[in-house]
Structures are given as structure tokens and as C-alpha cells.
């Protein structure tokens, strides 16, 4: 029996890349990268780690635009294989976040996570692993969804499981970081910006229906459209939001 198509899969990342016209699996694409990285000075000589890099578009953008020498990793080997072929420049590794300290040969001045934290089954362990590879005074920049308090009671379902498994509660960010080796510096609320990005994304999904159907079939298109339409509804209702979180290595 064929497994149901899931957006939280390698094929799902490919569909998102098709819709977004680039190898991005996070909201806002290049606009989001610029927004998240605006407080961080560009320094091509710095070591930067992009955690959960997916198909590698964000890592390549960060290096191309001068934020650092980029190393990036993702748990999906096929995504890393594609990233290496498509985006020369960054160093790409296939590994789980908790195994990253054993795979990386240096410490990093800046660590980025773009729509990654919500997917981690053990967020404290993942953040501690990143703290272990952070240089003294390193900056952690997190771009992600936040649960404003009601999402877990009615989550979106993707192929039998939650589409957004673990969006962090907005009021729990500081304690999560503090228990994982990081010190919160600033949280920026970007709820309305997320709404705008998803209005645009749902329109792009409609516009690219034929290409999506060719890739994953009519049922696959309906699944994609339903998930992102549902996500937009929850963002508009304030059940979900968006945040930029900046922290530095504690101790």
C-alpha cells in the first residue's frame, strides 16, 4: 500500500520549492531571510551554521549575501544530496540535530533556524546540541511559528500526524532557551507579516495547480491546498503567530 503524501517529507519540500520558485521550505522565502538577519552584521569571514537547512536555499542565500562561511545540515539525506548539487559554496551535511556536535569540526559565531524549532520532537536537546557547537558569545537567530495558546487543541493534520508538531508557546520561549544553554536577547512578534506571506503562498499554490498535480496528483494538490489554507485560517484567527527570536550563548 502506498504511503499517503505528506508535506512533512522530502517530496513535500520539493513541492514547496516548486511553489516558492526556490529551494525554501520556510515562510517568506528571501524576504524572511532579510528580515530575520537584519540585526546581524554581514561578515563573510564568520562561521555560520544553518540548522535544518532543507534543500539548501537559505544556506546558499546567507553565504551569497555575505553573512558568513556557511555550514548547513538536515536530517534528510536526499535533501542534502540535492543541496550539494544545486548550491555550491556552503558545506552541507546529513545529520540529526542532536548528533550535530559529533559531526561538526568547528564552533560557530552565528546559528540560524528557519521554521525548524516547531518540528523538533525534543526541543531542549536540539537547542543544547547547538549550544555545544556555538562559539563564545555566539548569536542564535530563530524564525518560527508560535502557538498563542490554542493551536494544540485543534492542530492541522498531515498524513495522520500534526502538520506543525511542536510550535513553541510564545510565553515559553525564554525558559526553553535558558534551560538549553542560551540567553534570550529579544523576541519580535511578526504575526501580521506571517499572514501576508501565507495569503501570497495560498495564491501561488492555486496558480501552480497544474504543476503540483503533475508532481503529486490531484489528491496531493487538494492536500497541499487544504493544509496551507488551514494554516492561513489559524494565523488570521490568532491561534498561530510568528516570531523572530534572538539569543546568545549563555556562560
Structure description:
The chain contains nine helices and ten strands. 41% of the residues lie in helices and 24% in strands. The relative contact order is 0.16. It has a single domain, classed as Vaccinia Virus protein VP39 (Rossmann fold, 3-Layer(aba) Sandwich). α8 packs antiparallel against α9 (209-237). Strands 1, 2, 3, 4, 5, 8, 9 and 10 form an eight-stranded mixed beta sheet that branches. Strands 6-7 form a two-stranded antiparallel sheet. The protein has helices at residues 10-20, 29-37, 57-64, 77-86, 100-103, 123-132, 173-178, 191-207, 209-237, and strands spanning 47-51, 69-74, 91-94, 108-114, 134-147, 157-158, 161-162, 168-169, 182-189, 240-249. The protein is of the alpha/beta class and 251 residues long. β6 and β7 (161-162) form a beta hairpin. The model has no long low-confidence stretch (mean pLDDT 94). The radius of gyration is 17 Å and the shape is globular. The longest helix is centred in the last third of the chain and has 29 residues, at 209-237.
Provide the descriptors you would attach to this structure in a database record.
8-stranded mixed beta sheet, 251 residues, Rossmann fold, alpha/beta
Amino acid at each position: 500500500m502506498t504511503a499517503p503524501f505528506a508535506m512533512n517529507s522530502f517530496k513535500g519540500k520539493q513541492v514547496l520549492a516548486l511553489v516558492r520558485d526556490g529551494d525554501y521550505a520556510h515562510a517568506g522565502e528571501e524576504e524572511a531571510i532579510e528580515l530575520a538577519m537584519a540585526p546581524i552584521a554581514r561578515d563573510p569571514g564568520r562561521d555560520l551554521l544553518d540548522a535544518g537547512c532543507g534543500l539548501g536555499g537559505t544556506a546558499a542565500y546567507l553565504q551569497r549575501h555575505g553573512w558568513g562561511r556557511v555550514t548547513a545540515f538536515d536530517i534528510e539525506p536526499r535533501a542534502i544530496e540535492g543541496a550539494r548539487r544545486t548550491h555550491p559554496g556552503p558545506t552541507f551535511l546529513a545529520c540529526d540535530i542532536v548528533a550535530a556536535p559529533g559531526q561538526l569540526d568547528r564552533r560557530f559565531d552565528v546559528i540560524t533556524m528557519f521554521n525548524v524549532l516547531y518540528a523538533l520532537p525534543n526541543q531542549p536537546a536540539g537547542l543544547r546540541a547547538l549550544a555545544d557547537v556555538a562559539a563564545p558569545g555566539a548569536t542564535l537567530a530563530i524564525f518560527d511559528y508560535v502557538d498563542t495558546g490554542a493551536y494544540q487543541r485543534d492542530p492541522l493534520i498531515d498524513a495522520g500526524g500534526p502538520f506543525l508538531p511542536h510550535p513553541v508557546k510564545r510565553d515559553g520561549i525564554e525558559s526553553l532557551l535558558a534551560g538549553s544553554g542560551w540567553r534570550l536577547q529579544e523576541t519580535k512578534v511578526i504575526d501580521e507579516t506571517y499572514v501576508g506571506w501565507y495569503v501570497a503562498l495560498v495564491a501561488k499554490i492555486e496558480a501552480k495547480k497544474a504543476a503540483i498535480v503533475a508532481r503529486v496528483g490531484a489528491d496531493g494538490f487538494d492536500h497541499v491546498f487544504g493544509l496551507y489554507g488551514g494554516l492561513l485560517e489559524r494565523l488570521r484567527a490568532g491561534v498561530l503567530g510568528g516570531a523572530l527570536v534572538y539569543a546568545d550563548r549563555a556562560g
